């Protein structure tokens, strides 16, 4: 059953692909189908690209919402569509081809898909089913002896925060004030998302907004405290409604290492061999039923069960990388939060190795073998037992439990723990592969969007900003971009961004005070400890200065900023090189706050992004350099300035067609020839762009040179004609209006004009009459022997002489054209206006004549002899 629909049509232009992606993303998010958004965006991007780019037609996109998923249809309108024969199969195309990959992706990602043909249309549709997810889960535990209850440090602080339907904080209890440092009146009515540091991992995590809308949700995230530090918390969310039907979410938050308070496990005695337990699945005995359906929940349940099973003080679980060379911390209980997420240790080789991770191991006293289990260093744990998780003989992880007392564990406990590990290894590996697949799909969608954004600009500063904004907060809490101008230059801190805008200035100051990272071209991310060390030293100095005060209340703003900045850079900092065209052009630096590590999948995604960003940044640099050169050359073709002509007002308006062009095929010039005489010219070279600009430069400089040699107007143009023809294949014909101007003592002005194929100059008299001020003659650059003549015109006080190029007279709107008559009508109402006002009115009339921007170069030259009282 279709419960909602949304449709849109996209024009056959490149930018339509991005617009279609945004349309599908917004539609599905509005329907609450966030689980399938990334796959839908990727598939839509490929199918719309096939339509608007490869087929060159408009694309119709239709989204249909059903009770169990979403169906998206993409149609094109290729005019010569052939209906395939029934017996012929579909050609999916090669994955390496630029086009034709849409059907391959449909087959890989969609639940169902198909293609329907008509003589004029091709419809490709795909169906994405929603994953099965229970609305809520209820669980109850049996009565437990006191000795088996979870251990908490001193008093358990449970923050109770209620969020109303708009996402604002409606209630904030005393424990919340104690844990996070904000009084209730300071946070009342503010958005809860302003305080949340949510774990952003593309494709794997529900966002905070979605989590607050679910009927029940549990998991880990962070709350930014009043001192700037992020406090890791474990939260349990419950969606409720009041008597009026208004929904809100109640959040119970505890310190992350006290999550057992909210997640008291069901403890089943594994050693019980009764008939009832023998008939039960060993996996359910250990993990409980129902088993968590997400990887993080499964891992956390596993470590808590393992701790309880061996009556331990702490437990931990690490997952192996694909090459089995490192183990990554994924879940702990009973250990400091610093040991919890994504820290890595080598499996067997090198310092800090994990020990014999491939076999069960028992350490009766870690003080005798320090460093055998790096995860437990400085935790107070002395005895530990670790067992491997293996699937088909391959190491997939390691499970361990530890106790504060020495000699707690023997081989018997190791065998019990190994038995439990064998029961859950396959489930953990299956959940890990599922998470990895979701992450990769989310990463693909992320990279598609990133590539499209980076390809949409050639501005260097905008590229830097986009690079940082795509990184924060999706991949990191903060980032900094260093750029390198050339091989001899030092890296320069060009851009800094933090997810909390109030931290940006302090972070920028800290990074500016330390040496930049070395520009190493080796691919991949490498650790950079300098920011953490500098932040620690700055915080230490600040703490010493404030010693003896009631910090942080009496602490100044500068001291609080220093401590907040130190907390911001207290976690891992990694550097990725920006390499383009075999040269390091900069570095992308990513950072986490205190006690946080990067997971490998995020670093791999950041490496993919850095490659795309480096090429975009280098393209922007090359474009900027070439644009600067082009503009410099073009400015050299423009006149240096208008001379001050006695008793004559002169105004010029010039517009070159084409983005980035300052000079085109139209040109003008006004220059002194000798005492009391001035030359003026306005011309139009055939065409636009650099080729026309080259002839423009030749004509303008030749005019000045020949006029100052004393040649008359016809002689100047005849010699210019010969110079243009000498250019051979590079020559272009040229229309030119050239004249000489002599201001007279009686207040008038004498002009001698030659109009070589150019639109005729118009003379406006004081009575409002308009007439042509010259006769047409042959244009330049076509025939060798020209016979030109000049005509004299006298401008009386109040008269205006208007000279334009054909970009003015040939301004079009459909079949209409402004023309000479339309220009004369506009000029007729300019009586009494100054030369500048006349030129401005002509320009406005041209711009308003048509809605589309002008596609031809345009020059307007207005000369007016002012009346005596206006001098």
UniProtKB/TrEMBL annotation:
<dbReference type="InterPro" id="IPR036890">
    <property type="entry name" value="HATPase_C_sf"/>
</dbReference>
<protein>
    <submittedName>
        <fullName>SpoIIE family protein phosphatase</fullName>
    </submittedName>
</protein>
<keyword id="KW-0378">Hydrolase</keyword>
<dbReference type="InterPro" id="IPR052016">
    <property type="entry name" value="Bact_Sigma-Reg"/>
</dbReference>
<dbReference type="InterPro" id="IPR029016">
    <property type="entry name" value="GAF-like_dom_sf"/>
</dbReference>
<dbReference type="Pfam" id="PF07228">
    <property type="entry name" value="SpoIIE"/>
</dbReference>
<dbReference type="Pfam" id="PF01590">
    <property type="entry name" value="GAF"/>
</dbReference>
<dbReference type="InterPro" id="IPR000014">
    <property type="entry name" value="PAS"/>
</dbReference>
<dbReference type="InterPro" id="IPR001932">
    <property type="entry name" value="PPM-type_phosphatase-like_dom"/>
</dbReference>
<dbReference type="InterPro" id="IPR003018">
    <property type="entry name" value="GAF"/>
</dbReference>
<dbReference type="Pfam" id="PF13426">
    <property type="entry name" value="PAS_9"/>
</dbReference>
<dbReference type="InterPro" id="IPR003594">
    <property type="entry name" value="HATPase_dom"/>
</dbReference>
<feature type="domain" description="PAS">
    <location>
        <begin position="160"/>
        <end position="196"/>
    </location>
</feature>
<dbReference type="Pfam" id="PF13492">
    <property type="entry name" value="GAF_3"/>
</dbReference>
<dbReference type="InterPro" id="IPR036457">
    <property type="entry name" value="PPM-type-like_dom_sf"/>
</dbReference>
<dbReference type="Pfam" id="PF13581">
    <property type="entry name" value="HATPase_c_2"/>
</dbReference>
<dbReference type="InterPro" id="IPR035965">
    <property type="entry name" value="PAS-like_dom_sf"/>
</dbReference>
